[in-house]
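Re: weekly structure request thread

Next one in the queue (687 aa):
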Amino acid sequence: MHLCFFIIAVPALVTTSHQNNNCIVGCKCQEESNFVRKLKIANCVNPLTLTKSTFAKITKDITTLSLKNVLINKIEIDAFNGFNNIEAVIIEDSNIGSIDPSAFSLQELTTISFTNTTFGEVPKLSAKYLEEVIFNDCKLTEVPNIELLPSLTFLNLANNHIEIIDEMAFAKSENLEEVTLSNNSIAELPLNLFVNNLDFNTLNVDYNPLESFELNLTSDLEFLSLRYCKLSAFDRTSAKNLDSLSSLDLSGNQITILPIDVFEGMKDLNYLDLSNNKLLELDGDIFLDNSKLDRIILDNNQFEILPNFQTTAEAFQTYHFSCKNCSLKSVDNSFTNMRGLVTLDLSNNELMHIEGIFTQMYGLKELYLSHNNISSIGTKSFGEDTEIETLNLSSNPLKYLDPVVFAKMTLLKKLDVSNCNLVQLWSNHNKYLNTLEQLFIGNNNLTVITVDDLKITPQLKLLDLEGNPLKCTPESLDLIKFLINNSINSKEQADVLKTHENVLSKFNADDDFKPQSQWKKLAIVCNMDFDIYHIYQTKTTMKYNDLKDSFMDDDISYEDDGDEDGDKDNVDDFYTVDEAIINDRNFNLARASYILSITSVFILTALVVLTVAVALTLLILKRNKSFNMHNGNLPRLKIPLWHTTPGQKKHSGSVYKPLSEDLSGPRTPIINRYEFKQTPQVHNAIP
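Done, posted below.
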């Protein structure tokens, strides 16, 4: 055992020593080499002045250098000399006095990032090859001078205190493509701020107190985000020079009116977010030139009515449309030209009728209609060839459901009708929902759910029953048996599966998820002793179905407790099948214990025999004087020390005999097992 510990410990010591040698004195270091070789230096005890000598012990072949929680007096011009492969320098949670302008002038260095870092002097950088510069949350009050960064393409100045930007701040950065100015205090952008940036294509100005927006551009701006500014209007003046936009986010502003021609000319626009504004209406021709819109988000406005959106093309390419909490009372014909919709969210509105609205949406897969005023769903509510997989009708006054309506949805997997005032699950059992896997019927007024209600959903894997005033009836026992026997999971798994639905198909009641424990609450309602009423479904016991036919003749008996309400009937006599299964489980446990005992005895006996054999062998050899632990002419291996001379190879640990060489040479010298000249030192970077 000591030998095993020695073998494991030595490489560990070597690794630790290697990692800590590659460090700055007084700091903690960690090296990573998954995809890129990265060195993290953190929590330095003393302030540092970064020079070439500071990194004297640092391996120079790293590609990323990270400094965290460090007080840096100055970064000198030669600080990173010798790092010929370095591509990125990341400094976070630190304080920097000053930086030599040319400190980052390395040919391979393309990215520097400062996060939550303060500066004694605002950096003025001069680096020919730098492409990405990040000053995130650095308490800057002005834009750093970037005139001497000719290769700069990306600049991030988010989460600072910048109020005013000089019109020439980016004038000499001709290759600049993307700028992030979010979370500052900018009230106005200079009109010609980006006029010299011919490749400029992305601007993020989120969370700034902008009251208006207008820019002169010579480039093709593709992405513009103005989320949660204070814009009260966005008109043709704001939209000029934005004809190349593909993504526009105006959410969280105070816009009340959008002119009919505001998006005119934006023929490549494919993402538009107008949510959380104060819009009251939209003209039907507002997206006339925007047939490529694939995502439209209008949530949290006050429209009441959506128009019939028109387009100059044959149809919109829209696959996602959302207008949640928009006070909608009607959407008739609104989606006539959006037949390619895949996801439609109209939840939290005031819709009452949905007949014929979705019949032409042949590709619709997800439909959200929760929290409306829909009282009935007819057979013509959805098309004949619908591909709907997820349907959410929760919080609508439905009262009952007709399976015929949903049977037409031949791909339906998830149906949510929770909180719908249902007093009966299905009005009939005339149709099967052959593909339904998840059924949410919680928080309704259901008092009874029968096995027949669930038999029309043969693929059901998850059922939410919580919040229903279920009564205990003889059918309740059958229901629990059905749920357990068919491996149907309960609400305990529902919350997980809503965000990890791809895991659903992997659930196996024979392994970790046992439905009998999930339906314990339902058994308690009926005053069942659930500890006795376990139907075990494990790999080592017989299934309930295998035993049912043998024990179902006259084994079921119910005893009425005399309660006229029938709410708490007790089950006094349990199925003989359950006793058989429990007995079978106990038998298997006993058999496993027996096998374990026999195996343990065999192993112990073998160890004793082996020990005695070795002792006898050593005793015989010693009596014959043919063996001596200290003088025996046995081959001995000398394991080279870790501080062996250069060029000497470390021994691999294997023993071999030359095939044709003379073995008459001198005997191998005896090596003391403690020949290490000194205890292997665990290096600590802190003196």
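The chain has ten helices and 28 strands. The first strand starts at residue 28 and ends at 33.
Next request, please.
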